[in-house]
Amino acid sequence: MGPCLADGPNLATILGMNVEPTVDPPLLVIGTHNAKKGVELVELLAPHGVAVQTLAAFPEAVEVDETGATFAENARLKATEQAKALRCWVLADDSGLEVDALDGAPGVYSARFAGPACDDQANNRLLLEKLRATPAQRRGAQFVCSVALADPAGTVRAEASGLCRGRVLEALHGENGFGYDPLFLVREYHLTFGQLGREVKRTLSHRARALRAILPSVLSLVR
C-alpha cells in the first residue's frame, strides 16, 4: 500500500511560502482539526519541501477520541487512526499546559478544561480563577507537545516531544497565538506568546521543539 500523493497546491503554497517544487511527493497530512495549530505545523514543515495538507482537505477524516492518559498516547491515537482512515502519512500532535501549582493540570484536558463545549476564553477564565490566590513565584508552568508520525498502514514510525517552561500571569497580555498563549510568560523574552510574533514562537515553542526533534524522521520517510 503506497502513500497518497500530493494532488494540487498544498497548504504551504496557499500560504505563499517559497518551497522547492518536487514531483509527485508523498503527502503528509497534519492530523488535527484545530485550524490554528494546523497552520503552525505547516509553517514549521514548509521550508523543508514536504507536501503538507491539513484535515480540512479530507471530508473522510475521522474524529478521534482522545482517551490517552498522556500527550504521547493521544498523539499516537490521532496519528494512527487518521492514517488508517486516509491511507496517508499522518503527523499528529497532542499538546497542552501543565501548571505546577495545579499538580500538572490542565494537562491532557487543556483544550476542554472548562468543559467539552468550551472555548479559549472559558479555559483562560477558569485557569485564572484556580490560580487567583497563587503568588507569582508559584505560578510556574510548561507547555508540552508530543508528536507521532504514522505510515499509511497506521503504524507509528517516529515519535518526539518538546516543552517550553514559563509562568502563568495574572491577566491576559497580547492577542497573538491561541489557547493559553496570552497568559503564558516566556522566560527568555519576558513576554507572553500572545505578545510575541510568530517567528519567535516558531523557535521557542513546545511544538517547534517537538517538530525539530521528529523532523529527521519525517524527511527520511515521507519523501
UniProtKB/TrEMBL annotation:
Family of the protein in this entry: Belongs to the HAM1 NTPase family.
GO CC, alphabetical: cytosol
Record key words, sorted: Hydrolase, Magnesium, Metal-binding, Nucleotide metabolism, Nucleotide-binding
Gene3D superfamilies documented for this protein: 3.90.950.10
EC number(s) recorded for this UniProt protein: 3.6.1.66
Active site feature: 94
An example molecular function term from Gene Ontology annotations: XTP diphosphatase activity
Cofactor binding note from Swiss-Prot or TrEMBL: Binds 1 Mg(2+) ion per subunit.
CDD domains named in the record: HAM1
Catalysed conversion reaction: dITP + H2O = dIMP + diphosphate + H(+); XTP + H2O = XMP + diphosphate + H(+); ITP + H2O = IMP + diphosphate + H(+)
Cofactor needs: Mg(2+)
Residues annotated for Mg(2+) binding in this entry: 65, 94
The protein's name: dITP/XTP pyrophosphatase
Function, in words: Pyrophosphatase that catalyzes the hydrolysis of nucleoside triphosphates to their monophosphate derivatives, with a high preference for the non-canonical purine nucleotides XTP (xanthosine triphosphate), dITP (deoxyinosine triphosphate) and ITP. Seems to function as a house-cleaning enzyme that removes non-canonical purine nucleotides from the nucleotide pool, thus preventing their incorporation into DNA/RNA and avoiding chromosomal lesions.
Subunit structure: Homodimer.
Amino acids binding substrate: 32-37, 95, 178-181, 201, 206-207
InterPro entries the UniProt entry points to: dITP/XTP_pyrophosphatase, ITPase-like_fam, RdgB/HAM1
GO-annotated biological processes: nucleotide metabolic process; purine nucleoside triphosphate catabolic process
Superkingdom of origin organism: Bacteria
